[in-house]
Design brief:
Immunoglobulin-like, 6-stranded mixed sheet, mainly beta, 11% helix, 274 residues, 2 domains, globular
Length: 274
C-alpha cells in the first residue's frame, strides 16, 4: 500500500505539471519550442537625403541605406527578432515604443542593456502581445540621433482585423534645417521655457506632401505615427469621411471624427477613411 504523504503529493504534482507543459507545447507548436525567426537586420547608417528642393541634406541617419527607416511589420502573438548593427560613430540602441516587451529588450542603456558601440551588434527578440501602430527609435543621444532621422514605424498586425482596400503608413516628423538644406542646432536654450525647439521643415515619410493611391469608394486604413520630439499636430480630413479607430495602439471605445484632434510627440493614430 502506498502512503500518500505531502512530499509525495507535491512530487507527483510537479511531475504531472511538467508533463502537462511538455505535451501542451508539443501540441501547440509541433515541437518543444517556438522556432526563432530570421532576424531583421537594422544597420545604422549616415547618408544624404533630399529633404528640401534645394538639394541633398548631409549627415542624415537611418537604418539601411535606402532612405527612411523601414516600416517594420510584426504579427500579434508571433515571435519577432531584429539585429541592430551599429555603423555610426555614436553608441546607440533601439527602443520599441509602446510595445510591451521583456525589460532586457527595451533598449534603455545602463538600465536594461549596454550601449551598442560602433562596430558592435545587439540581438532583440520578443513576441508582441498587442496589435496596433507603434514606432522605434534610439535611447542614446536622442535629440541628435532622432533629430537626424533614426525614427521608424512599427505595424503589429492582428489576423482577426477586418480587411481594408488599402493601407497607408505615415511617419510624421520635423527637421531642423537651414536655408541651405543642412542641419542646424537641434536645440535652442531659450526654447526650454517655451514649448520646445521646433523644426523648420515638416515631412510625411520624409517627403513634402506625398500622394498615395487608394481605390475610389474603397475603405482605407491610415496609420499615423508622430516620430518628432516637439511638434504637436492637429488633424482634419478634407473630401472624405474619416473616423478614428485607435490611439496609441489601443482601439477607441467609440469611433469619432479626427477634426481638431491634437496629438503630440510619440503618439499614434489609426483612421478608417472612405
Amino acid at each position: 500500500m502506498t502512503v500518500l504523504t505531502r512530499r509525495r503529493l507535491l512530487k507527483t504534482a510537479a511531475i504531472a505539471g511538467a508533463g502537462g507543459v511538455g505535451l501542451s507545447a508539443m501540441g501547440r507548436l509541433g515541437g518543444w519550442a517556438a522556432a526563432t525567426p530570421e532576424p531583421v537586420v537594422l544597420q545604422t547608417a549616415k547618408i544624404q537625403a533630399k529633404l528640401m528642393d534645394i538639394g541633398q541634406t548631409r549627415d542624415v541617419l537611418t537604418y539601411g541605406n535606402a532612405g527612411m527607416p523601414p516600416v517594420l511589420r510584426m504579427k500579434k502573438g508571433q515571435p519577432f527578432a531584429a539585429r541592430l548593427v551599429n555603423a555610426i560613430d555614436d553608441p546607440t540602441t533601439i527602443h520599441w515604443h509602446g510595445i510591451r516587451v521583456p525589460n532586457k529588450m527595451d533598449g534603455v542603456p545602463f538600465l536594461v542593456q549596454p550601449y551598442v558601440y560602433t562596430g558592435d551588434h545587439f540581438d532583440y527578440a520578443f513576441t508582441p502581445p498587442d496589435a496596433g501602430t507603434f514606432w522605434y527609435h534610439p535611447h542614446c543621444n536622442t535629440l541628435e540621433q532622432m533629430g537626424h532621422g533614426l525614427t521608424g514605424v512599427i505595424v503589429v498586425e492582428n489576423p482577426n482585423d477586418p480587411k481594408f482596400d488599402a493601407e497607408i503608413v505615415l511617419n510624421l516628423r520635423d527637421w531642423r534645417l537651414g536655408d541651405d538644406g543642412q542641419f542646424i542646432d537641434q536645440f535652442r536654450p531659450r526654447d526650454a521655457a517655451r514649448t520646445g525647439t521646433y523644426g523648420t521643415v515638416r515631412t510625411a515619410n520624409w517627403l513634402d506632401q506625398p500622394q498615395y493611391d487608394a481605390p475610389a469608394g474603397g475603405l482605407a486604413r491610415l496609420r499615423v505615427a508622430i516620430t518628432d520630439v516637439t511638434r504637436i499636430y492637429a488633424f482634419h480630413v478634407d473630401g472624405a469621411k474619416a473616423t478614428v479607430m485607435a490611439l496609441d495602439g489601443n482601439p477607441v471605445p467609440e469611433r469619432f471624427s479626427p477634426d481638431a484632434l491634437l496629438l503630440g510627440p510619440g503618439q499614434r493614430m489609426e483612421l478608417a477613411i472612405r
